[in-house]
Fold these 2 entries.
Entry 1:
Amino acid sequence: MKNTLKEKLQHHQQPIGTFFELGSPNAAEALGHTGLDFIIIDNEHGPFEAESTLSFVRGAELGGVCPLARVREVSRPAVLKLLDIGVKGLIVPNIHTIEQVTELVSYAKFAPIGNRGFCPTRKDAWGYAYPATESVAENMAVCNAETLLIPQCETIGCLEQIEAITALDGVDGIFIGPFDLSISMGIPGQFEHPDFQAALQRILNACHQNGKFCISFTVQPDAVAAGFLQGFDAMAYGLDAAVLVQAYRTLIAQVRAQQ
Ligand code: 3PY
Ligand code: MG
């Protein structure tokens, strides 16, 4: 049940992750040998559903990288399936209102924080992960503490309510979606725009004032270190498939230059 990402966040170890798009258990396991701290199995933009996500979670666990998943939508089945297979955190896209986040907390956190439905599943070794296996209350408390619930801030609506959203019990942190946020602000892809930079700072401040983690995403390698300097607790860099393409392009160019 231990959540290595949460531990690294708490110890300010500046974890680095990536979006998982390659879609095989082997690929998830291999990413565990790269130095990455977490992967986000993408059930929003990626083609995956909970059943395939489960095999990627196993691969990630074997490789020693913390598996998170991005859920497709705020709905009870979508949230429960990913949590019950044992992802260590949920990234939740397309949040527009605090009411959506309240609904999300009710699905994702057990009572007394929310109203998550209970069943012994893979997340708790089908009920055998606890010293006191008969203790449903302890199981619920551990799951609440060890499973990170991380809405994305990527719409103007979410940005405008970010102080109230980050104050909600059950919200462990925020993941910034820079592409959609900049689009929602009418400045698509203009990540250096002063308004966009002010928005990032506002989200970061709201998170930290409420004792929550703030994670940002970039596709620019230099922006990872810059993000940590700015104060983000973790950074996600790119997509594994894009990194693979870039690595082979560099390799092939080097080989061709030697011919
Ligand atoms: C965004 O930038 O909008 C994201 O959600 C990252 O995938
Ligand atoms: Mg997005």
Entry 2:
Amino acid sequence: MENYVSNLMAEVKAKNPNEVEFHQAVQEVVESLTLVMDRNPRYRKAKVLERIIEPERVIMFRVPWQDDNGEIHVNRGFRIQMNSAIGPYKGGLRFHPTVNLGILKFLAFEQVFKNALTTLPMGGGKGGSDFDPHGKSDAEVTRFCQAFMCELFRHIGPDTDVPAGDIGVGAREIGFLFGMYKRLKNEFTGVMTGKGLTWGGSVIRPEATGYGAVYFAEEMLKTRKEDLKGKTALVSGSGNVSQYTIEKLITLGAKPITVSDSTGYILDEEGISREKLSFVMDLKNVRRGRISEYADKFKGAVFTPVNPKLDHNPLWDHKAECAFPSATQNEINGKDAANLLKNGVYVVCEGANMPTNIDGVNQFLDAKILFGPGKAANAGGVATSGLEMAQNSMRIRWTREEVDARLFNIMKTIHEVCARTAEKYGTPGNYVNGANIAGFVKVADAMMDQGLV
Ligand code: NDP
Ligand code: 2IT
């Protein structure tokens, strides 16, 4: 079996050179799946994992647009249509200067398993661009989104591929993208999720990823007869996922003490209150400013700028019980994981996608802490996107209570399935194995049913 993993990984690396994040995401899954391959040789014979690793389709395209000074820019657009075995491709769009093929393939690959775990009929996809929305005017973002959709529209559709938001793509961008799609197709459909509430969006979709991550942490804690009340939490990021993680932590009586952005982090030992969270939301969603302003506004809060010379992130080096990494991939390395464990953190719940590198994950698993991997813990966002699709298809709207209850039940079910699967394969408490195996089995069985696809 060792040979199986190393041969497969050698092939993945040779076929997809330089896509380091994609290699990392595949490696983690392949290691969990050795347990399944041992017991079910039919998957190996059918090369179903090899097929899942290969995207069904990769679309790359030119996005030319003009800034406010009339200068022309050329960005690259992508959509990875990874797997449609259990439903239309579904997954977000990321606009960030670091976006490249390997990053979007890792995200699309993770999305396939995550979406399978949600219990809803959604395949996996991801897309985006190396466009940087920071510092751009609304008019520039509008022009970019319109140019991006001028190509993307021909590849998506409510029964084909349904994009949503991710880093750098929030309510504003979804609006501009949807508006252009509608002009081009002359159709008002549920082709995107995360839409505005007056034009087909679902209540609780903005909150869903953060709320879901906190619900997942509560479920993990329940296995130890504990809850979040009174616990201190380290949270990274200050965007969509972090904001609603913090809100739900406050509601459940926990004390979030950090937030960050790409320039540095804030430590507020008094705790981030609802009032301070409103400031962060206005700062990040409306004024689009820098997180250092938090320390100018609130006495006692300390801002630490990013120091590229450090081999670790000092945000993870504070006393706490819980950590909710909610910014980006590989934001917790081996040293950060060691710092978290040393500081008493025993709940790590991943709001972001693949925020912990493989060394870090292995340390958490060895320490037997409550570690909720992204594909399970942050699935509440895409699950609520699935609920938005269902409401659009039925042309109805559910209430906040109804959507929140469904989200809560989905997170509870994901937790149960991951826990049960980990146990069944002989690694109780290992939610990484649980999520990877349960997600894989669902997609693999669907692919086997559908012939050689
Ligand atoms: P946002 O764009 O709303 O916020 C991202 C936050 O992370 C910002 O504070 C940003 O800082 C920071 N950040 C982004 N990239 C980096 C980087 N390279 N280094 C340091 N900080 C960085 O995105 P979301 O909150 O939507 O997404 C956060 C994470 O959650 C991502 O991993 C995403 O894939 C994942 N996720 C999102 C879901 C969703 O529904 N939105 C669902 C499931 C997972 P700055 O403001 O300086 O740019
Ligand atoms: O990573 C993710 O799950 C998302 N960015 C949300 C995708 C979606 O389709 O709602």
